[in-house]
């Protein structure tokens, strides 16, 4: 959510766990935070 509040920031997420990476790229996120799914979906496919 930092990127939404501070669009001038660059946010990089790195993980070595293939299962966690797949979870973040799936339709069901591995954690719940109100509004997070919409934010993630709006930024997917940009890099």
UniProtKB/TrEMBL annotation:
Recorded superkingdom: Eukaryota
An example Gene Ontology CC term for this record: nucleus
Stretches of the chain forming a coiled coil according to its record: none
Residue ranges annotated for the UDP-glucose/GDP-mannose dehydrogenase N-terminal domain, each copy included: 9-44
InterPro entries, alphabetized: NAD(P)-bd_dom_sf, UDP-Glc/GDP-Man_DH_N, UDPglc_DH_euk
GO MF term (any one): UDP-glucose 6-dehydrogenase activity
Catalytic activity: UDP-alpha-D-glucose + 2 NAD(+) + H2O = UDP-alpha-D-glucuronate + 2 NADH + 3 H(+)
One Pfam entry name: UDPG_MGDP_dh_N
Gene Ontology annotations of biological process type: glycosaminoglycan biosynthetic process
Protein name: UDP-glucose/GDP-mannose dehydrogenase N-terminal domain-containing protein
Taxon lineage: Eukaryota, Metazoa, Chordata, Craniata, Vertebrata
